[in-house]
Write a structure and sequence with these properties.
The protein is of the alpha+beta class and 235 residues long. The chain has two helices and eleven strands, in the order αβββββββββαββ.
């Protein structure tokens, strides 16, 4: 091998070493960028505008990959989170979906109202009333005159429970009806307008209001002849 060939071999080796050095440098930069950016996650971008109160579905969004550290804590990363949700405001095309853009679909049906009353913990179905349960609401009334009999009445049948609140101490001086009760639970119902008036009246004027839990699958219907009871009926 003459000197000219040796120089060629040396230059070739130098070129290879430079290429390897450059490649190592690129890998180092890529690794550095990855370490600064962090792992990627899936977020969801709106395909088009969505009007307020519109029910949400997976077809309204497209998945995008982006570094987790660039996402806000409220970013939605799992489409299971939109199940039974609606848009709380206008959602714009291209926006990333955030949890504060959506809310649960209203539990009320058309024509229903949401009404909450306090139920004496001792006269309710203690610990067994849960959201989604169906109950009949009974109320007892004193006779209008001393000669009139006391009555128990079905005020509302098939009332749907939306929410059960926390056990709350009662003010013993609040009214005569609750003077013997020490604790009550706020229970929220979905009711028609007339049933909302009935249950509100009972809370205000009945001696006691009681809940009867309806068996799962039942509608709580009470025959008209059984909706009012007097002690004399059994004598």
């Amino acid at each position: 091998m003459n000197s000219r060939q040796r120089r060629g071999v040396i230059l070739l080796l130098l070129s290879i070493l430079c290429a390897l050095g450059a490649f190592a440098g690129v890998l180092s930069v890529v690794d550095d960028v990855k370490s600064k950016v962090g792992p990627e996650v899936t977020a969801y971008e709106l395909k088009s505008d969505i009007a307020p109160y519109t029910p949400l579905g997976a077809g309204q969004f497209s998945a995008v990959r982006m570094p987790e550290r660039w996402l806000s804590p409220t970013a939605v990363t799992d489409l299971a989170d939109i199940r039974d949700k609606i848009a709380v405001t206008t959602l714009k095309k291209g926006s990333l979906l955030q949890s504060d853009m959506i809310v649960d679909q209203p539990a009320l049906k058309a024509g229903e109202q949401e009404v909450a009353i306090m139920i004496d913990a001792a006269t309710g179905v203690a610990g067994k009333i849960t959201p989604g349960a169906t109950v009949n609401v009974y109320a007892t009334f004193e006779g209008a005159r001393e000669s009139d009999p006391d009555q128990s009445r079905v005020i509302v049948s098939g009332a749907r429970v939306l929410d059960v609140g926390e056990l709350t101490p009662l003010d013993p001086d609040a009214n005569d009806r609750s003077s013997t009760a020490t604790e009550a639970v706020p229970i929220t119902f979905a009711l028609s307008a007339i049933d909302a008036q009935r249950i509100t009246y009972a809370e205000s004027f009945a001696e006691r209001v009681r809940l009867a839990l309806v068996a799962p699958g039942g509608d709580g219907t009470v025959p008209e002849q059984d909706r009012t009871y007097e002690l004399a009926d059994d004598q």
